[in-house]
Amino acid sequence: MFVRSLVATAARPMAQRLASSLGVRAFATTVGSLPHLPYLHGDVKTLEVNIDPAEPSMHDSTIIMLHGLGDTGFFMAPFAADLALALRGTSFVCPTARRMKITCRNGAEHHAWFDFPSWDDAGNNKCTGVEESVKEVNALIDKEIAKGIPPERIFLCGFSQGAGIAFHTCY
User: Fold this and answer.
1) Given a cut of 50, is residue 28 above it in pLDDT?
2) 109 by DSSP, 3-state: which?
3) Most buried residue among 35, 89, 112, 132 by CB atoms closer than 10 A?
4) Of 48, 59, 57, 61, nearest to 154 (Cα)?
5) Sign (positive/negative) of CA torsion 8, 137, 47, 72?
6) E-state strands within 99-143
7) Looking at the predicted structure, is the pLDDT value of residue 31 above 60?
8) pLDDT at 166
9) What are phi and psi of 40, to 5 degrees?
């Protein structure tokens, strides 16, 4: 598997089970016992995943990673964990979009950044909920700025719908 490791604190047994179910090697560690490894924090209620630098004083940048239609922040966690090993001063924020009914899927409820009526080109011009998602991402950016991260050191990336929201937020 492309992911070398996923890190969880000993207080996060759910993250450890998740990692094992994904076939990822999980390192259970208490804060400070393995200072060279980043820490994964998953919130079961919001489905948001954060990966913080092993040494908080090294935190100098943040990457916000947005998932695609029907996924959650946990989908982005393996990518973030892999990058965290190389980008040691970087914090990763993997939020989960709100649940909404998706018109092109006959009203089925999914985690999504926006709704769209059809898969064709015409449907792409009639999306709803984009601005609300942009506000949510801007709130995440503001939170990182409040932590002292300069705006030019905050990066957005995404997969599918998440990529669209990342582009729209930056535009």
Assistant:
1) no
2) strand
3) 112
4) 61
5) negative
6) 99-102, 108-111
7) no
8) 96
9) -95, 135
